[in-house]
């Protein structure tokens, strides 16, 4: 299997982190041109790394392996960094807090107090991610996406809190968590 170039990694990683993703979601996550995304997905399909299922792209185990191999090549040295390990140790309690705030928000029917606490967790994570951008420049996209979803939720569109149908705060958080675990080389079930 050949190594993925940067754009192919970004596209297939978006599918990997979402388990299945449509081209529009991949374009939104990567900010790559729709034509380029389509060509990469076409090539991945020809290479047996995944296939289109309706409007979605399903990544096969071969595609996930290519994505994880890219993580290993790109972040192998970084994952040994004590600073990154310490960063993740600070993230874990924030992640637990975020999950609680999401549950509280859902249980309350989306009340403003619960939403404010949830948004405060997201803002803390955005600041923490800024500290990683020098080592992982593509993480600026998470900050941008969180900012866009927070702005939409502040304008009253509550779908941008937890809906699986849009680039919601909850979806972005889940993707980021999967991503940082992949950078660290940790499986999700042990984190």
Structure explained in plain terms:
The chain has 191 residues and is mainly α. The chain contains nine helices and three strands; from the N terminus they run αβααββαααααα. The protein has a three-stranded antiparallel beta sheet. Helix 1 crosses helix 2 and helix 1 crosses helix 3. The longest helix is centred in the middle third of the chain and has 26 residues. It is globular, with a radius of gyration of 17 Å. The two termini are 29 Å apart. The mean pLDDT is 94.
Quick summary:
This protein starts with 5 loop residues before the first helix and ends in a 7-residue tail after the last helix.
Number of strands: 3
How helical, in percent, are the residues? 55-70%
Unreliable stretches (pLDDT < 50, length at least 5) are none
For the CA atoms, what is the radius of gyration? 17 Å
* Alpha plus pi helix count: 9
SS class: mainly alpha
Estimate the mean pLDDT confidence.
94
| Beta-strand proportion | 5-15%
Report the order of strands and helices: HEHHEEHHHHHH
Spatial strand order of the main sheet: 1-3-2
Tell the overall outline: globular
Distance between the termini: 29 Å
Q: Summarize the biggest pleated sheet.
A: 3 strands, antiparallel
């Amino acid at each position: 299997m050949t190594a993925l170039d940067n754009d192919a990694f970004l596209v297939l990683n978006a599918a990997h982190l979402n388990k299945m993703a449509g081209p529009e979601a991949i374009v939104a996550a990567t900010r790559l041109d729709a034509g380029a995304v389509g060509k990469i997905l076409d090539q991945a399909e020809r290479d047996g790394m995944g296939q289109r299922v309706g409007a979605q792209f399903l990544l096969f185990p071969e595609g996930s392996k290519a994505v994880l191999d890219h993580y290993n090549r790109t972040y192998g040295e970084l994952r040994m960094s004590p600073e990154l390990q310490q960063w993740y140790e600070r993230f874990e309690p924030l992640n637990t807090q975020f999950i609680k705030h999401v549950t509280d928000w859902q249980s309350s029917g989306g009340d403003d107090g619960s939403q404010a606490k949830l948004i405060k967790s997201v803002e803390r994570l955005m600041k923490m991610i800024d500290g990683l951008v020098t080592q992982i420049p593509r993480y600026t996209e998470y900050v941008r996406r969180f900012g866009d979803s927070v702005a939409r939720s502040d304008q009253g569109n509550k779908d941008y809190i937890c809906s699986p149908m849009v680039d919601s705060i909850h979806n972005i958080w889940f993707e980021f968590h999967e991503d940082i675990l992949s950078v660290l080389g940790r499986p999700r079930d042990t984190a």
